[in-house]
Amino acid sequence: MNDRVGVEVRPATLYVVATPIGNMGDITLRAIQILSAVDVIAAEDTRVTKGLLSQLNIQSRLISYREHNEVTSSDGIIKLLSEGNSVALVSDAGTPGVCDPGAILVSKSRSAGYRVEPIPGASALAAAISVSGLNRKGFVFKGFLPPKPGDRKQFLLSLKTYDVPVILFESPHRIKECLSDMVLNFGEDMQIFIGRELTKINEETVSFSLREALIWVSSGVYQSRGEFVLVLFLPIQSDAPEQTPANVKQLLHDLLESLPLKQAVDIVTKYTDGSRKKIYQIALDIKNGLDVKGD
Asked: Does 1 map to a domain?
C-alpha cells in the first residue's frame, strides 16, 4: 500500500480530478494538492470551479472545457500537454467523464501518448449504490434518460432485457414524467431506490414501490431542485413461466451464420420481446451446435 501524502505533479500529464457533489468536506487531500500544483485547470464551467478554488484558497489558470466545445477545446489541451504542461480536468461536481464532459479529452490524450491519471473522489453513482441496499452481483449504469418523451419510453422498454438492477440519473423537472412512464412499463409494484441532493443539506434517500415513488414526488418540492439517482430493481419478477417468441431461435440461427454471438443477441433482443438472458442462452446453444457442425 502506498501511503505517501505528498503529491509530485508530472509534466505533460492529464489529471482527471473528482470534486465534491455537494458537501465540501468530500474534497480529497490529493485533489487539493493536484489542483494547487498543476499548470492549467480545464473546467466544465469556469464560474463553478472559481467558486470551488476560492473556498480552497487556490489560484490557478482556468480554461473552459464544456460539452458543446469538447471536440475543439480538447485539441487545445493536447497542445498544452505537448508543451509539457500538467492539466487537471474537473467537472462542475463529481468525477469527469461519468455523465460529464471528459471522455473525448481522455481518449485523445491517451492516443497521443500522454499520461492520464485519475484522482478519485466523490461520485453520485457510488454514493447511491452504497446506501441503496443493492446486494446482487452486478448492475448496469445507463446515465441520464433521454429528455424527449417518445425516446424515453423506448429507452425504458429496452431496460426490460436486463436481468440486473439498472442505475439512472434524472433531472428534477422531468422526474415525475419519468416515474409515470416507469409505472406504465414496469408496473406500479416494482421496487426503486431514489437518492436526491446526495451529500447536501437536503439529502434524501428512500426506497419505494414505483406507485409510492410517484406519489412521493408529486406531493413535494422535488421537481424544482436536486438531481436524482434512481436504482431500478430489475428484473421484474413474474410467476408466469418465461416465454420466448417463436421466431427467436430461427432469427438467431440465421444471424449466427455470419455474425458474432454478442452482436446477434443484441439485434434479436432489440427487435423481440424476449429477455436478454434467455436469448443469450439460446444463442449459445445454437452457436455450440454450429461449431460442432463446422468440425
From this structure: no
